[in-house]
């Protein structure tokens, strides 16, 4: 379970963790799941898998997925490359500008995801707990935040909740984010999504964070935990099938509300007295410091 702190403190911890994790990622194993039919790439069968990756250290491009195969080029550290499939033994197939370039060993690559939303996402979600609420929600893309000292970003969102609990209406906003690099900085494409309620317990330091993990290779999100136990419970839906960032975000909202218990709603309603137009929240959300993982 992820433990959240204030935005600036947790981002500092995250950045320090990244330094060590990148080195681990460069030399540790990890294979991606794929279900599509094999295709041919430069005469080699590969499993299709499309994605963007950052090169962590200078790496040779090979004509075949073997260390002794012909060198056909070089990717410099910091380059972003387009992977179209996987071969055996942790090799990925790279295509640039429509041309099949060659194979690269994936242990020097970091997978990325783009959290940009072109349009707002809307839906309806229910807490499923006595004393909870049923809410219409709108997810708006706010932009991206840099992780100091690194070349990837975190995508930020604003979630507007328009809820009814009993005979009362309450409208509030929560920050939300997704890490555009894997939360453990390894080769597995598992990205952290957080929804943060600010000032729920009467103080800025008490950010109530709900953490969900988006496993892109297994096309699912998984509930990971909350950071303040007195406000949380196990949601009815702990795993949901998703295939894209928009689906992951909407499913996260619908899963997170199920993880907020009656005490959370009692304090939330007490601290959100205005209806119908809450002001946009400032970007104070907790940033990732690591999660248990699924």
- Tally of DSSP β-strands: 16
| Tertiary shape | elongated
Low-confidence stretches: 1-35
Trace the largest sheet across and list its strands.
Answer: 9-10-11-12-13-14-15-16
Number of separate domains: 2
What is the residue-mean pLDDT, rounded to a whole number?
82
For the biggest sheet, the summary is: 8 strands, antiparallel
* Share of β-strand residues: 35-45%
First-last Cα distance: 10 Å
Helix/sheet category: mainly beta
Helix-strand pattern, N to C? Answer: HEEEEEEEEEEEEEEEEHH
Computed CA radius of gyration, to the nearest angstrom: 21 Å
What does this structure look like?
15% of the residues lie in helices and 40% in strands. The relative contact order is 0.18. The protein is mostly beta strands and 294 residues long. The chain has helices at residues 7-27, 245-256, 262-271, and strands at 39-41, 44-55, 59-62, 71-75, 80-86, 91-96, 99-105, 109-112, 121-126, 134-146, 153-165, 168-179, 190-197, 208-215, 220-226, 239-241. The longest helix has 21 residues, at 7-27. It has three helices and 16 strands. The chain is elongated and about 70 Å long. The chain has two domains: 7-19 and 113-271; 42-112, SH3 Domains (SH3 type barrels). The strands form three sheets. The chain has an eight-stranded antiparallel beta sheet with strand order 9-10-11-12-13-14-15-16, covered by helices on one side. The model is unreliable at 1-35 (pLDDT under 50).
């Amino acid at each position: 379970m992820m433990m959240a702190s204030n935005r600036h403190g947790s981002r500092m911890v995250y950045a320090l963790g990244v330094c060590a994790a990148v080195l681990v990622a460069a030399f540790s194993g990890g294979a991606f799941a794929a279900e599509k039919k094999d295709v041919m790439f430069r005469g080699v069968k590969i499993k299709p898998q499309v994605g963007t990756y950052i090169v962590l250290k200078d790496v040779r491009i090979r004509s075949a997925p073997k260390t002794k195969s012909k060198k056909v080029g070089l990717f410099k550290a910091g380059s972003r490359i387009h992977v179209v499939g996987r071969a055996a033994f942790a090799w990925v197939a790279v295509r640039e500008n429509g041309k099949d370039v060659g194979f690269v060993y994936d242990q020097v690559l970091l997978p990325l995801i783009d959290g940009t939303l072109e349009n707002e996402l809307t839906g309806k979600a229910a807490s499923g707990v006595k004393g909870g609420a049923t809410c219409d929600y709108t997810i708006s893309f706010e932009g991206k935040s840099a992780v100091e000292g690194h070349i990837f970003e975190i995508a930020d969102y604003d979630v507007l909740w328009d809820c009814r609990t009993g005979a009362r209406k309450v409208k509030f906003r929560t920050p939300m984010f997704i890490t555009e690099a894997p939360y453990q900085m390894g080769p597995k494409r598992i990205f952290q999504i957080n929804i943060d309620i600010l000032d729920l317990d009467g103080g800025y330091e008490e950010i109530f964070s709900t953490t969900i993990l988006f496993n892109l290779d297994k096309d699912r999100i998984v509930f990971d935990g909350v950071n303040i136990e007195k406000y949380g419970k196990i949601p009815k839906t702990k795993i949901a099938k998703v295939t894209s960032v928009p689906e992951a975000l909407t499913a996260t909202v619908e899963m997170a509300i199920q993880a907020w218990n009656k005490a959370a709603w009692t304090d939330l309603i007490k601290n959100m007295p205005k209806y119908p137009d809450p002001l946009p929240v400032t970007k104070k959300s907790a940033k990732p410091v690591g999660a248990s993982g699924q």
